[in-house]
Specification:
heterodimer, A: 498 residues, mainly alpha, two-stranded antiparallel sheet, globular, B: 165 residues, 6 helices
């Protein structure tokens, strides 16, 4: 009953004209971002972070960001199917069978089932979030400093180990993120760390500048090197409503994809990419005709597209209930909330119910908008790919430069942005995944604060992290995960996976 | 790539040692019950050095395995990108980076409107090698669009420079 009344209140927030408009803008921008290769949701949300200063209501700002995040999962499938060009990492697997279907003249059916699967999975994911999030938040209210420290650290380490990239490189990124966040004034002792006499560094690096540099500018620099070209669209879309056979073939794939996506999305580091890969592998495994996978099997589109959308919905659960962002895009939304003076975590539902329920309700609204927007406007979305990189790149650079200047009104932030952009470029060249860097950056204050408070409580003993039951359980779970990963790694992959 | 990774890993080890030393001597570690400002950065510095060392060893071992494969498989298996290839890639990126640095330097000196138009002109002429007409159109339109977005819609202060103030 409490959930029902909360949801009703959420809809009263989400359905105000301003919030409907921003949900619509988020859905449109997200779809566009999903369609455009090279500009991911994390980069786009980072680019829009300065705009949150101008949006007075925190719930409106988060509705916009959330719309971009889940909208990008819809848009990513369009170019994967029609051009064999994944707009998003989570849509890579959709290329395999989606493009084959398009080559066989069934692009419409592939796009249709991708959109309907995405809608169904996204909606189920939001229903799951509606039911489970308040319970998780209620449980997390009993967490003290040791539990918060273990939760943040284990969440971060899980994001590193499950990200699919090299674990050593992930850990390096995590350490760099923690270090960059520690620059500036130490809140407890009042000492200035790593400022080396530079006045602007005394307040530390700004998250928005870091995120826009590493994700936005870093991607532009990489794109400049490879001279990205736009492609012509020659594929005919045709009828977008799937046939009865398509429905029969894909209904179980949608269901399985939804379940996989929902579970994987909750785990830090899981998210849309891993869930789509797992879903594809499962569909191929359970199929009676596995030989058709890679040749245009509709289950190969329905499963992964459902999984990545369910994951994008459920990945909000750890953010809204525990204050732990599970991936880079969610870390940006975490930062947006902090900018608006709202701390995500177990107290969010009590202190800011309008944000908690308003965001959830807006996701129902946004999901319907995306279904309506995607299918009729598919031709328009595909034309976006033809925007020349020569225009897109300098406009994004201007956006990031002016955005970073606007935060504190100092040119130093533009220089920092360029520095972070070059750093992001270097990371891409050396095959580092920058996700753990930004996650560690946003979680550092929580990790350091909780660690120092825990040590004070325990009289300086680290044993507090293994004597408190919840903290011990979290560390134990992570130890088991690492053990499993290590076994798999030594069987299959070298330590550094390029 | 293997050479770049080896150099980067050694640089990371050195950087980690510097962070740990700086944290210990200048920020102080404090007591276990009340850790000081250098406590966490000290641990991070040590972790970075250790991870850098593991990265170096892994890259070294991977390189040796590739070289062994190259010796069996023929010339060029272990090699990374060649010098002309690297030069071509950098020639695509370096002018862009320099133009952005110039933009940052001129931003407050010339003010937003002039520096932004100049940035777009430089970008379109040097990086994209576009004609003057297209360059002028893109420069003026994008500068105006950004001005409308940030100043009128988002109400953010941008320096106008002496010419426009």
């Amino acid at each position: 009953m409490e959930i029902f009344s909360g949801l009703i209140n959420g809809f009263s927030v989400a359905l105000t004209p301003v919030n409907v408009l921003f949900a619509f803008l988020g859905a449109i921008l997200g779809t566009a971002v999903g369609v455009l290769p090279g500009l991911g949701p994390a980069a786009t949300i980072a680019l829009l972070l300065p705009a949150t200063y101008a949006i007075s209501s925190p719930v409106t700002a988060i509705i916009l960001m959330a719309g971009i995040f889940y909208g990008s999962q819809y848009g990513g499938s369009t170019t994967s199917i029609l051009l064999n060009l994944p707009g998003e990492a989570s849509s890579v697997v959709t290329c395999i069978d989606g493009y084959k279907m398009a080559q066989k003249g069934r692009a419409g059916a592939a796009l249709g089932i991708a959109a309907i699967g995405s809608f169904a999975a996204g909606t189920v994911g939001i229903v799951g979030m509606t039911l489970f999030a308040p319970k998780i938040a209620g449980f997390a209210l009993s967490f003290g400093p040791p539990e918060m420290f273990s939760l943040a650290l284990v969440g971060l380490l899980m994001a590193v180990t499950l990200s699919g990239a090299s674990i050593v490189k992930g850990l390096i990124m995590m350490a760099m993120g923690l270090l960059l966040a520690s620059v500036g004034l130490d809140p407890i002792s009042g000492k200035t760390r790593f400022s080396f006499g530079v006045i602007e560094l005394q307040s530390g690096f700004d998250f928005v500048t870091l995120a826009m540099g590493v994700f936005g500018l870093g991607e532009i620099f990489t794109g400049l090197e490879s001279a990205m070209k736009s492609e012509a669209v020659t594929t005919k879309v045709g009828q977008v409503w799937p046939t009865v056979k398509d429905w029969v073939d894909s209904r179980m794939a949608i269901l399985r994809g939804t379940l996989i996506g929902f579970v994987v999305g909750i785990i830090p580091g899981g998210g849309a990419v891993i869930s789509s890969l797992v879903s594809y592998a499962v569909e191929k495994k359970v199929s009676k005709r596995p030989e058709e996978f890679g040749q245009g099997a509709i289950e190969g589109v329905a499963g992964p597209e459902s999984a990545n959308n369910a994951a994008s919905s459920s990945s909000f659960i750890p953010l809204l209930t525990l204050g732990i962002p599970g991936n880079a895009s969610i870390a940006m939304i975490f930062a947006a909330l902090m900018i608006k003076g709202v701390t995500p975590g177990p107290f969010l539902i009590q202190e800011h119910p309008e944000i908690f329920w308003g965001v959830i309700a807006s996701m129902y609204v946004g999901n319907v908008m995306l279904l309506v927007l995607n299918l009729p406007l598919v031709g328009l979305w595909v034309q976006l790919v033809r925007i020349p990189f020569g225009i897109l790149a300098p406009v994004i650079i201007l956006f990031t430069a002016i955005g970073s200047y606007s935060i504190q009104g100092q040119v130093f932030d533009i220089y920092s942005l360029i520095g972070f952009g070059l750093f992001g470029y270097l990371l891409r060249k050396l095959k580092f995944e920058p996700g753990p860097l930004v996650l560690a950056f946003v979680l550092e204050p929580m990790i350091e604060g909780a660690m120092r408070r825990s040590l004070l409580i325990s009289g300086g003993s680290f044993s507090i992290f293994v004597t408190h039951p919840i903290s011990m359980a979290l560390i134990g779970m992570f130890a088991l995960l690492v053990l499993g990963q290590t076994v798999v790694m030594f069987r299959k992959k070298p330590l550094i996976n390029n | 790539m293997a050479r770049a990774e080896r150099i980067s890993s050694v640089a990371l080890v050195v950087f980690g040692v510097f962070v740990a030393a700086y944290s210990r001597h200048y920020l102080r570690l404090g007591l276990m019950i009340t850790p000081d400002a250098g406590f966490l950065p000290y641990g991070i510095g040590i972790a970075l050095s250790a991870l850098g060392a593991i990265w170096f060893v892994s890259t070294f071992l991977t390189g040796m395995a590739h070289e062994a494969g190259g010796a069996e498989g023929g010339v060029g298996e272990a090699g990374g990108e060649g010098a002309p290839d690297r030069a071509r890639r950098l020639s695509g990126m370096l002018p862009g980076v320099l133009i952005i640095i110039l933009y940052a330097w001129l931003f407050e000196r010339l003010g937003y409107p002039l520096s932004t138009v100049l940035f777009m002109v430089c970008w379109q002429k040097i990086v994209e090698r576009e004609g003057w007409l297209k360059t002028a159109a893109i420069a003026l339109l994008s500068a105006a669009a950004m001005y409308i977005l940030f100043v009128y819609l988002l109400r953010i202060y941008l320096p106008t420079g002496t010419w426009f103030s």
